[in-house]
Every structure is written in structure tokens, then in C-alpha cells.
Amino acid sequence: MPDGGADFVRIEGLKRYFDVSAPWLVRKLEGRPRQVVQAVDGIDIEIAKGETFSLVGESGCGKSTVARLVVGLYPPTAGRIEFDGNDMAGRHSRSDMAALRRRMQMIFQDPFASLNPRWRVFDIIAEPIRAFGLSTGKADLEARVAALLRQVKLNPADGRKYPHEFSGGQRQRISIARALASEPEFLVCDEPTSALDVSVQAQILNLMVDLQRRLQLTYLFISHNLAVVYHISTRVGVMYLGRLVEVAPTDTLFRRPKHPYTRMLLDTIPDLEMTGRQRSPVGGEVPSPINPPSGCTFHPRCPFANDRCKAERPKALPIEGGTVACHAIEEGRLPIEDRTYALNT
Amino acid sequence: MAAASNNQPLLEVRNLRIEFPTRRGTLLAVDDVSFDIAPGEVLGVVGESGAGKSLTGNAIIGLLEPPGRVAGGEIRLEGRRIDNLPYEEMRKIRGARIGAIFQDPLTSLNPLYSVGRQLVETIQTHLPLSASQAKARAIELLQEVGIPGAEMRIDHYPHQFSGGMRQRVVIALALCAGPRLIVADEPTTALDVSIQAQIIALLKRLCREHGTAVMLVTHDMGVIAETADRVAVMYAGRVAEIGPVREVVKHAKHPYTKGLMGSIPSLGVRTERLTQIDGAMPRLTEIPPGCAFNPRCTFKGQRCLVERPNLMPAGATRAACWLHDSGGVGAPILKETVDA
Predict the structure, then answer these.
(1) Structural fold of domain A6-90+186-194+215-322+333-345
(2) ipTM above threshold 0.90
(3) How distant is the Cα of A203 from the closest Cα of chain B, in angstroms?
């Protein structure tokens, strides 16, 4: 829960559209219209300092786009991103902007693609320190990199090696060390463990939790894996076709899910407790974000949809410490039920 | 469930060894792997990347990528040895007796042919049917795997299908000739969870209806838990533990399996930290003597460093671990010899 309204990161009405139209000439000759993907279509998120806010959803729901918007890899089409009270789109001097940028870093999904294969690990980790001019000299730089490597449980001597000499999990540790190099306060983690094996995933998640506690980090955690999200998050936002359908504290979301899509997602988690039990498969697939359905974008797959759902876009309603965007919940047509999970022995 | 009445297993893998000759010497990627699959049974094979699970699957369908080769052991399908068959002979078995489903449905379909053409081609290769009969069967198959409007969709090309629909087409292709065994290598890894549930349910239903056995290769223990009858856990090219899925999930006997189960985040309990197995699986060039898991194992003794355990009975499963041998793990190891 955000404490006292002093939100560390505040996202308001964030939108990002991508133009995926055919080239102009083709459009004119074939009479095709412009096509716009509404990757992120109006999102509000508040993240308090020290918490882990997770975004979950299926592929194509726009969660990675949100991550990239937040760190400034994409400019937003509309909306506002505030970081510690500073509007990221506002006018800042170069040095002010650099100071803001230093405080947020990103960890990417694929540890094979996000590290330059021609650079030694030392240089990879030293780059943010050099770029932001944080070190006072060569000895200081070396000491900082060694400390960062130790922090992610690697050996300082590993700095001489190249990324290909490391396994996937070790590479993700290098990415984390690089992200921590500029002493950030806010880390955006885009599927940091989905390319890793489960036993390695556990190591990385534990490391992230330890680092968060030690360095008072705030995480925006993007994942499609609900079990991982349940494990690591303070609050969770569920995305569907570029919109947030539900935001709630983690326990509330998993124990008392409200939005029909959240419930559907929870039904589909393969769990070790499922031995012999049948997961209830849900019909249909995520529609194309080029022509999203009218009204509530989930209505074609929703068993509770009525005419209002087809016509009117639901607003986010505050409920039980979170928000939910659903007409059925608002009208009380859909009762909220408690869920229990079998305890793992 | 496994048809227990038939006492001959459908597939027998005995002491399978797969080698990769390289400039720096021969790598042993799969080392002495043995297991059976009964008719109609779903055997899950789990392990981390590089454990040799996909190689084992590929060896069974005779599609080992050179320079990898079967260096020892044998594979028998319905009692007949298939690992040493000439290429043309194996081609007849592959598709007809053994179907295959791969991870990425986009790369296992030819983008230049309509799905109908690919289905008809496969059907006619293995079954004596005319073109129109084959097409009728193709439509039937597409309906069976749950593709709406199969009559129309049959003329569509792979790019016109979504990921989940493509994987359905691949399943239809695998089922074309009514195989006895399907080797499914990470069939749901590329799919979203909601689609994954649909595909798993479909695979389960079809195999039950057709009495097809499945070797389900995946790294996702959740998928195994809800699909498989038995599970084999692979580590560094060997089977670490094999047994009924419930037993392996709930009462794992091998320290690696235990660690693996603990490292999976569960919805039941929210722990501060996940159980973690330190270190990583050794590279094939650096497999330690004795038990391959010994550098990461917290229960190891002197014996584990020198002597390699084979599968032995351990409770309701079989595990390759000296903890379950009457001789035990041997003398304890002094702390200073254990590196972090």
C-alpha cells in the first residue's frame, strides 16, 4: 500500500500508440486505412517507495511497453510519468535529467542479448559509473565494480571475463550488477527470470529480495508468471490489452480476485498441487490490439458480459485497497469469492 | 492412466548414451539413461536446460542433430529396436508410429504451404488414402483439435493462425497417422498461460481417446504435475529420479528433486525466500567424478565424490542417490574442502 500518498513513482493516463500502417504509397494504392496498435491505453499506477509493484498479463498486453515508457526508452503518446515528484517529460537541464536517469535503471529479460558480447564484464558494469561520472579515479572504479560483483555473489576476478563465459543465471547477475552500478533507487525489471531455469530463477529472486532490503530499492516488476509475482510483489496490477483491469495488494489479488480476467488467469496457473486435477481451460485468445473490442476489451471472453460491457469502457473503481475496472463488479452482478490454495507440504 | 494389462512396454530405453565428438574431446550429453513408457501412459521428463531431456527425445524420434550420435544402449518400440535403423526405415516409423510436437509451432510448420496441404501430405505419406479422403481426414483432425471453421481454415497458411491455433495444427499433424507414441518437446513453452491450459487439456484428452502414449519433455514442473502419470527428473545427462508424479512432487527422494520442487514459487504459501540450490548444473565438459550433483548437494559424503550412484529404490520412486543405499553416502566431508 502506498503510505501517506507520497508516491515515489506516479503514472497518470499513460498511453502509447504504435503506428503499424503499411507504407503511404501502398495505403493510397490499395485504399487501406492507417493502423494503430494501442499498446498502452490509459494507465494509472502509483508506486510507493520500497515496494514491489508487479504488472502481469499475457503476451501483447502492453506490460513491457509500460516498462520501457517508465524508464524513457519510448516517449509516451499521452499521459504523465512522475518520478519522486519530477515530471519526466518536463523541462529539465541536461544535468538534472542525468541525475534523474541515474536513479532509475532497468533489468532486461534476455541476459544473452542485453550484455555486449565484445565487452569484458568489468567494462559492462563500469559503464554506468563512467557515464554518470560517479567514480573519483581508477582505483575507486575498480573497487566499485568489485563490490558490485560481490553484491551479486560473483567473484571480482570475473570482471576480466566476457559474457559468453557465464551461464544464463550468472549473466542475469551481471545485468543486475550493471543496473545497480549507478546507485539507483528504482529498478524496472522486465521479465528478469523468464529465460532462466527454475532453480536459477529462485537464486535470482532471492538475490533481488535481499538487494531490495539492503539498498531500499523500489521495483516495478514485469512478469507473466503469476507464481513468481505472488512471491515477490507488494502490489499487483493485471493488464489486458493495454489497460489495467485490476490493481490490488498481492494477498487480496490472489485470495479475493475480482475482475473476471484476473480470475481466469488464476484458474490457468499450473501448480504443483494440480496433480490429477484438471485446470479449467478458458476459451478464446487475446484479441488484436489493432482493433480492440469496444467497451470493456475483455467482453468477448467474459462469461459475465452484458450490453453495457460491450458499449461502455469501465472505470477503475476503488475496492478493498485496490481498484477494479469491471461493470459486473460495480453493479454487484458478480459476487466476490474467497479463494484458498492447498498448502504445499 | 497406464494400461497395466499389457505387460510389454510400448517404448523401452536401455542404457542410452549420446555423445558429441568435438575438437576438445567427446562430450557425453546423455549418460546411461533407461526408462519405459507403457501404452497410453504420459511420462514427463523434466530438467534444467542442458540436462539432456530434449536430446533423449530427439534420439527416440531419430532426429539427433549431427555430430551428436547414439553411442550406446538401445531404444525399442513395441519390442523392435529402432535406434540403429537406416534413415529410410526410420522415416516410416517417424510420423506413423511416433509423432512429434516441438516447442515453436511457427518453425515446425512450413510457411509456404497451407496447413491443409501439410496435413494431406503427411496423411498420404503414411496412410493409403486418396487425395479427397486425406483432405476429409485432415478436416476431421482439425475439428478434433478444436479449430473452429475447419473446412475454411484448412486452406489458410500458418501465419494466419495465432500461436495457440498453430500449436493445435502441429498436434493434428502429429496425430495424422494415429501414432502409438508422441514425443512432445516443450509443447507449451512458447504459449501464454491461458492458451497453455487449453493445449494441455487438448493433449490429455486426445491421448486418452486414442490411447496414445506421450513422452512430455518440459522444464515446467506445473505442466508435468497436472499431465503426467510418471515423471523422470534429469540432471547433467542422467536420470536423477523417476517415479509416479505425485510421489516425486510431494515426497521427492533425490536432493536435487527436493531442491527443484522447493525452488518453484507456490501459491499455497508465501515464503520470505525460496529454497535455492546454489550453483548451476555443470557444463558437459566439467561433470565432476562421482555423483554429478555433488558440488551442489548439502547431504553429500565422501562416497558421493568418487562413486556414481545408479537408480535405486527409494520409497515409492527410484532415485540415483547414495542416501538410499544401505552403504550410505560415506564419511562426512570436512567443511574446508567445500568451496562456496
Answers:
(1) Rossmann fold (3.40.50)
(2) no
(3) 6
